[in-house]
Predict the structure.
Amino acid sequence: MTIREEMEAREEELLCPQAALAVKSRGRTRTEEECDVRTCYQRDRDRILHCKAFRRLKDKTQVFLSPQGDHYRNRLTHTLEVSQIARTIAKALRLNEDLVEAIALGHDLGHTPFGHAGERALNQVHTGGFEHNRQSLRVVEVLEKNGEGLNLTWETRDGILNHRSSASPATLEGQVVRLSDKIAYIHHDTDDAQRAGILTEDDIPAPLRMLLGYTTRERLNTLVHDVIEASRGRDSICMSDDIREGMRDLRRVLFRGVYENPVAKKEEGKAIQMIIQLYEYYNAHPQAMSAEYQDLIRLHGVSTEQAVTDYISGMTDQYSMERFREIFIPKAWEVF
């Protein structure tokens, strides 16, 4: 018996009946020989962790565009916090922690530069619209490994695609990540907003603080514990009614104080216009894109518009600004 088979046997013994067992996975699009050490979900996690799109997350906006400070979250630290919260919940509920981690690490791979501002820009100009969850799936299915994709399991891909609030993941592990994503951004966006001085504890209504906690740390603890207690022994991942409504109220506070705050969002209009201009330029000059995106058109039959969307959505904040300066900002004349 291989190490992988021993781990699969332990999963059947230790995980709850509703957990997604590796041995019962619906498999990959392309059949592969199994690893003798890792389960299929562990391989998914490792493939995501080592892919290029994952590394680029460190230079993509979470909420604050190019913040001047070392402690503000970016898209990578958000992803890691989602993973940590989701693994805590999964372990407590005896779900498959490896699958949860794979979904969490991959859920935002398709996010644009400049956060949701970049997403709105591409959604505005790209035929058929743009959604970062669908782009995340496209990254792992098509774009990574020079057009081959990562060939992840069906369960991981389902969780990545359906991590938004309006979606319905097929596994409890996917449901854990979907809720952990919301808990993570509510927690760290509150923390970052307080660090930036645009939100204070006094801006959170007293009854809400009494219900959820008086600090960001206490509120995170309340939300995670409530998910665990409300979901134990159930066929879905949920929260108690009062805590779920409290989280919604806290989210409304964030929308008023942060997400719609002109002080926090004053540069977003510039970012949107920059993304739109880059999109228009590369559609007119696809030869100016990186070679791997030109190959999508030349070798894989991808439309120019889709390849441009793939290229721009994969950019980091700084890279997109560098490309914009190179294309649109005149350089000083030099004598050679």
Summary: The chain has two domains: 3-259, 269-321. The chain has a mean pLDDT of 94.
